[in-house]
Write a structure and sequence with these properties.
single chain, six-stranded mixed beta sheet, mainly alpha, about 50% helix, two-stranded antiparallel sheet
């Protein structure tokens, strides 16, 4: 069975169906904020203030991307430094890091990664040139390959690459030669710690977090610099509430949520009086109670599970999916089956033994207002969202408590052995025309792979990867991205994606491309770009589905903050021959719709600036790519008309292009000259270049720049 028209990817569709970690690329000058599961602070804003609400299992979340392989973003490093409460063991860890390699062990949520980033940053004198290595790295064969990197973070190590004293000694030598240090973060396993001390003769540092109150005050001060504003926000809390919440067992991740909730309560911010009801770290004790309360209510159970998976979506969708689950369950959500008479074994129920039974088809069976408080959720005010070329309003259903959905699903997945099968069947059968449901379903499936574990943890996801339905393959991609957040599963995810990327099966390769546009690729951009190159085989027939997915993933990675990595790969591909050269030029015009990074390169004569000009010229000279390239560049000129820096970047690019007036550049300049936009940056340059070309005069000359173009237009 082939893809239906509804599943087929449109070359220019960057908005529908599949949405990765980045914002949609904007084709015009109108912008719409689309933040399902997120908070928008409309009140007073303080320096470094942020609110992160990852919602339930469904929400795409506001969590920033954490690099697992490749360069660590300056944003993540600075975020880790802001409001960092230095623990007592920090000085000893810094001293141990002098040896070159430091092992940090701790439980999830204790601030291991934040502490590791601060250790590397502090030890390197505040350097932001830090890189991440994935959990499947083989340190016995690894070598520092980036001259500027001063620190490496390894988040988990797999036992398939055992370490020995010789490996550690060689690692220290390599790091010393490179002027770098390495922190390896591991789980707090007593046997593991003993083995490290005994076999490797190293001293692992146990990540014991500072007191919750110290973490709270450090983060709160960073989030709200004004002492008067901090006092005002704290005064709004119920008397004794802060002492009640800051219990000794609270870990830094939970304290950070409390800080975000309190600091976000500005003049028009969240209602601080309901703080206790929203905090996610109180959800663990609530989940069993919630299931017990709804045990004899199949409608309530179905609505609870649907809200867990589809939190943040419109209430009509949540109700629809709850009804679908009820039908699919066929009695499996009923604690007690209704008594049916079968006197003498006859098939006809006896009216004498059959009592009154609720009619499942009764249209007034349960109102939305009955169901919402039953599962401790609410229907939020209308939000505007955007689809394929249109805007629509939704009334999203959200739990009162943050992360309630994930907690409930984890509880029932582990505690009720027959439920995962029912939920899997339900999530597998998402209608093909409801592609917006793929991400929440994929997130749950990815998390469930970690909850279940074992050798078959990814088996069900692998089946979806080969589905004839694009929606199922998209679900598989999101699930793989979520599963790869687990250091143990990350290795298996990469193994499967690498294997599928070289298959002849185009469906498997489309799943690889989708996955590279999710959190998996955003946290491993270099790995993702290599996978995308292997996946692409042209644009003929079914391969067009793969090609469109590849292009979308490249654009997602670029917009998510990996511009240097993405561009270096594209530039390298463009210099070669074969499918990768074709892919590079086909994707490039679409990246130009996100101009900030390109303009920064042109303004600063950055390391990629010359290649940017070369690729622009190459794309303009390609008849098939000219229209897309011209449209994006003229969009630059329109947006730069009233802004000095973008105008300078546009003029720098046009001046460099004018040095070689081939047909593509000529067509661009002619179109700029004829464009009916009143104010168009660079139009005078284009007209001057055209006049000089018609007269046979050389282009404007001036001081030579790294772009090979003059600066005379500034004189």
């Amino acid at each position: 069975m082939e893809e239906t028209d509804g599943d087929y990817e449109d070359a220019d569709d960057f908005d529908d169906g599949f949405a990765g970690p980045a914002h949609r690329l904007s084709r015009g000058r109108r912008y719409l904020i689309y933040a399902p599961g997120g908070n928008i602070n409309a009140g007073s804003v303080h320096g470094d203030q942020r609110v992160e609400n990852t919602g339930g299992a469904a929400g795409p979340g506001g969590r920033p991307v954490e690099a697992h392989e490749g360069p660590l973003s300056a944003l993540e490093i600075l975020d880790a430094r802001a409001g960092f409460a230095e623990p007592d063991w920090f000085p000893a860890a810094l001293a141990e890091l002098d040896t070159g390699v430091l092992f940090v062990v701790g439980e999830p949520g204790t601030g291991r990664r934040t502490a590791a980033l601060n250790l590397l940053c502090r030890h390197t004198g505040g350097s932001l040139d830090l890189r991440a290595l994935d959990s499947d790295v083989d340190l016995s064969s690894w070598r520092p390959t980036h001259a500027g990197a001063r620190g490496y973070l390894v988040y988990g190590l797999l036992p398939k690459h055992p370490l020995g004293p010789a490996v550690i000694a060689n690692l220290r030598r390599l790091l010393s030669d490179a002027g770098a240090r390495m922190v390896i973060v591991l789980p707090d396993d007593p046997e593991l710690v003993r083995g490290l001390s005994r076999d490797l003769r190293v001293s692992p540092v146990r990540c014991e977090p500072p007191s919750p109150r110290a973490v709270f005050h450090a983060r709160f001060e960073a989030a709200v610099p004004s002492p008067a504003e901090r006092d005002r926000l704290l005064a709004r809390l119920e008397s004794g509430l802060l002492d009640e919440l800051l219990t000794p067992e609270l870990v830094p991740a939970q304290v950070a949520e409390l800080v975000a909730a309190v600091s976000g309560a500005g003049d028009t911010g969240p209602d601080i009086t309901g703080l206790r009801d929203r905090l996610s770290f109180l959800a663990e004790e609530e989940a069993p109670e919630l299931i017990k309360k709804l045990r004899n209510d199949p409608d309530g159970l179905a609505f609870l599970l649907a809200t867990c998976v589809f939190e943040g979506l419109d209430h009509r969708i949540v109700r629809e999916q709850a009804e679908r689950l009820l039908v699919l369950a066929n009695g499996r959500l009923d604690a007690v089956l209704p008594e049916r008479g079968d006197i003498d074994g006859g098939p006809v129920p006896s009216a004498r033994r059959d009592g009154p039974r609720p009619n499942p088809q009764f249209v007034f069976r349960r109102s939305l207002d009955d169901l919402l408080p039953m599962v401790r959720a609410r229907c939020a005010p209308k939000e505007l969202r955007t689809g394929s070329g249109y805007t629509y309003a939704v009334e999203p259903v959200r739990f009162t408590r943050h992360r309630q959905g994930e907690t409930v699903l984890r509880h029932v997945w582990r505690q009720y052995g027959q439920l995962p099968g029912l939920l899997t069947d339900w999530m597998d059968n998402i209608p093909g025309n409801q592609r917006d449901l793929a991400e929440p379903v994929g997130r749950v499936m990815g998390m469930a792979a970690g909850w279940g574990g074992g050798r078959r943890a990814l088996l069900h996801i692998r089946r979806l990867a080969d589905s004839e339905h694009a929606t199922s393959r998209t679900i598989a991609a999101y699930a793989l991205g979520m599963a790869a957040e687990d250091p143990i599963l990350a290795s298996e995810v990469k193994h499967h994606l690498t294997e599928w990327s070289s298959r002849t099966n185009w469906r498997r390769r489309s799943t690889v491309a989708y996955a590279c546009g999710t959190q998996f690729g955003a946290s491993r951009p270099d790995v993702a770009m290599r996978l995308l190159r292997r996946t692409y085989r042209g644009r003929e027939g079914d391969e067009y589905v793969v090609a469109a997915a590849v292009r979308r993933a490249v654009c997602e990675l670029f917009a998510a903050g990996s511009q240097p990595t993405v561009f270096r790969h594209l530039a390298g591909w463009a210099d070669g021959e074969g499918p990768e050269a074709d892919l590079s030029l086909w994707v490039f015009p679409h990246l130009l719709w996100e101009p900030s990074w390109f303009q920064e390169q042109l303004l600063s004569a950055g390391e990629c600036a010359e290649k940017v000009v070369a690729l622009v010229r190459q794309a303009l000279n390609d008849d098939d790519l000219f229209d897309a390239t011209r449209d994006s560049l003229i969009s630059w000129c329109r947006m730069a008309a009233w802004d000095e820096q973008p105008r300078t970047a546009v003029e720098t690019l046009l001046t460099a292009l004018a040095q070689e007036m081939r047909h593509g550049v000529l067509r661009l300049f002619v179109d700029m000259d004829r464009d009916d936009t009143p104010e168009l940056a660079g139009r005078d340059l284009a007209r001057h270049a055209l006049n000089a070309w018609r007269k046979g005069e050389p282009p404007r000359s001036g001081p030579t720049s790294v772009l090979g173009g003059p600066d005379a237009h500034r004189q």
